[in-house]
Amino acid sequence: MTSPASPSVTRNVPDRLQSSFTRGVRSWEMLLLVVLVLVFSANSFASPYFLNVWNLSDATFNFTEKAMIAFAMAMLIIAGEIDLSVASIIALASTAMGLAMTAGADTPMIVAAGIATGVACGAVNGVFVAGFGLPSIVVTIGTMSLFRGISFIILGDQAYTNYPKSLAFFGQGYVYWVFSFELLLFVLAAIAFYILLHRTSFGRSVYAIGNNATAAQFAGLRVVRIRFILFLLTGLMSGIAAVCLTSRLGSTRPSIATGMELEIVTMVVLGGVNILGGSGRILGVVLAALIMGCVTFGFGLLNVPGIVMSIFLGLLLISVIAIPRLLAHKFKRA
After folding, report:
1. HEC letters along 222-262
2. 179: which strand partners?
3. N or C, which end of the chain is more exposed by having fewer CB within 10 Å?
């Protein structure tokens, strides 16, 4: 006959459930969700135009292009690397689209030129970092100047315009009612990167490399190949973002996307990804993208100058990096 469960075992079950619930409530994603609700509520009270569904649809353009790159950047940072050249990749990919347009290419070829240029730029970064073992921050600072410099050499103070009307769909089109094509790409990219990072052996390898690349190498992981693939993914998403941004603006200038790398890194770090690598989740990046989109749109409705937004992003980036470290140091001393 089976003996009845002891009181201690019976008490441990709700204790474990309560512990799991407490961890969930205290998680970074839950905090971001609360912040998102507060920002959304504040914007709805601050401006009578905020809750208009078409205005909210337009607000998605403030973050979708950056967020698509942020998903790939999150995986790269989790692996202990970084790519600061993503905005310059957008500039060069957009320039390649303009060159294809002036050569008489149709819309599919123009789109292919932008995406292929993004992948090629990611491959350049991957070769130097993964192949030659150079520090990613040094390499991508160099290619940041290189890629945008090439755009300035090709364009100077000119601009590519007169893109085909069919290209406008990628950055201005709607797939259904208020749901834009860019928003659809954002959702699909979020799902794809969530599965890749959290549900595949490749994602587990990314975490392992970010925690200890040497141990991962001895464990049989192909560290060089994985790092190279991550830079390819970042270049691919930058190329896709270049197509959307060029389509939305309807023109190409060498100064396009200037400063976007700061917002992308802020989005990733705000999403809970450890800047030193080894931890982070795609869900956090999604919530961070929504928060930054709401803040940007709210500032726009209130006619807040762009320089104030830049100051806000700088302070936000410093805060989300510094505050957890200060708290951890305080608790360690205690």
Report:
1. CHHHHHHHHHHHHHHHHHHHHHHHHHHHCCECCCCCCCHHH
2. 176
3. N
- Asked if residues 223 and 213 have their Cβ atoms less than 8 Å apart, the reply is yes
Domains in the chain: boundaries? 47-333
Helices 282-301, 181-198: crossing angle, 10 deg rounding = 150
Q: Which two tokens stand for residue 182?
A: 């860019």
293, burial (CB in 10 Å: exposed 0-12, middle 13-18, buried 19+): buried
The counts of H helices and E strands in the chain are 15, 2
- Separation of CA 265 from chain center: 7
CB neighbours of residue 202 within 10 Å: 14
Coil, helix or strand at residue 14: helix
56-109 tens-digit pLDDT: 998 899 899 999 999 999 999 999 999 999 999 999 999 999 999 999 999 999
Separation of alpha carbons 264 and 241, rounded Å: 12
Determine contact, residues 62/293, Cβ cutoff 8 Å: yes
CA distance 75 to 264: 13
The torsion angle over the Cα atoms of residues 269, 271, 272 and 275, rounded to 10 degrees, is: -20
Separation of CA 177 from chain center: 26
What is the model's pTM? 0.89
The SS3 of residue 156 is: coil
Give backbone dihedrals phi and psi of 294, rounded to 5 degrees, phi first: -65, -45
As a CATH number, domain 47-333 is 1.10.3470
